[in-house]
Amino acid sequence: MSVGIKYSDVEVGFELPKVIHNYQRQDLVNYANASGDHNKIHLDEKFAKEVGLPDIIAHGMLTMGVASRVVTNWVKDISAIKSFSVRFSAPVVVPNDGRGTNVEFGGRIEEKMSDKLVKIAIEARCDGTKVLGRSLIIAQLA
Amino acid sequence: MALNLAFLNRSYPSLETFKVDQTKIEAFSAAIGDDNEYIKQGFASPTFLISIQMSAMEVALFDPELGLDYSKVVHGEQSFEYKKPVKAGDELSFVSTIEDIKSKVGNDFITIRSDVTDSLGNEVATLKATLIARGTDK
Questions:
Q1: What ipTM did this prediction achieve?
Q2: Distance (Å, rounded) from C-alpha B55 to C-alpha B57?
Q3: Which residue of B has its CA nearest to A68?
Q4: Mutate to test the interface with B, among A24, A30, A35 (most CBs of B within 10 A)
Q5: What are the domain boundaries of chain B?
Q6: Which fold has domain B10-20+48-133?
Q7: Is pLDDT above 80 for A1?
Q8: Distance to chain B for A79, nearest Cα, Å
Q9: Of A89, A92, B17, B106, which sees the most CB atoms within 10 A?
Q10: pLDDT band at B138 (very low <50, low <70, confident <90, very high)
Q11: 3-class DSSP state for residue A83?
C-alpha cells in the first residue's frame, strides 16, 4: 500500500476535506446488524422515549465510524491510522421524517510529531451542536 | 444504583476466536459509508473491532451482580490503538478487563479495556470503551 500524503507537505492548521453524512432510520438498522449493537435506543422509538430520550438516537459508534472517514478518505492507507479516540458529547437524534439528520465532520492537523506522525483533531457537528467532544486521530504519513 | 466495585480489574478472555471475513468487513464498511480501496483488498475500517468488543464485553455487562441497568446505558468514550490493520482471515482473541468503575453526579461509569491478539499471539489493537448508565435523577 502506498501513502499519498507526505508529512513534509502538511503544516499545523491544515484542514482535511469535510465529510457530510446523512443518518436515516434504516442506517441505524444496518449499523446495528453490522456491529451487533441492538440496543433499543437506536431502533425502537417508543422505547427511546420511555427512557427519556427525545427520539431514536444514532449509535455513537456509527458516528465514530463515519468520523474515521475524514482521515481514511484523505490518507487512503489503513495502516497509517495509529490511534483514534473520541468522546461522545451529544446524541445524534434521528427522527422518522424521511429527511434524516445531517452531521458534518472535519479534521485539522493539530500537531506534527516525530516519526512522521500527525495529530488530527476531529470535529462533528449536527445543527451547530458538537456531537463529538475531544476527538483525535494519530496518523503516520509518508 | 452504584455498580459493584468487586468487578474492578476482572478479566474476561474471549471463549473462542473471532474469525474476520470479507463479508463482515464489507457489511461494516457499508454501514459507516467507508468505500476506500483497502476494503476490497481485505482490510477492515478503523472502528471494525467494536463489533467484536461489544459481544466480548457482554459477559461482564449482563452479569446481574454488576448492577448495570443496560437500558440506561449510553456510550461515553471510545478509543482504539492499532498495532496492525485487521484483515480478512485474521483469527482474533480478546481479553476484556474492567479497568475503572465510578459514580459521578448520579451516573455510573464503567471503562472496559480489550486487548486484541491474532492467532500467532501478535498484538493487533487495544480498545477502551467507557459506558455511562444515566442516573434516575434526570
A1: 0.95
A2: 5
A3: B46
A4: A35
A5: 10-20+48-133
A6: Thiol Ester Dehydrase; Chain A (3.10.129)
A7: no
A8: 6
A9: A92
A10: very low
A11: strand
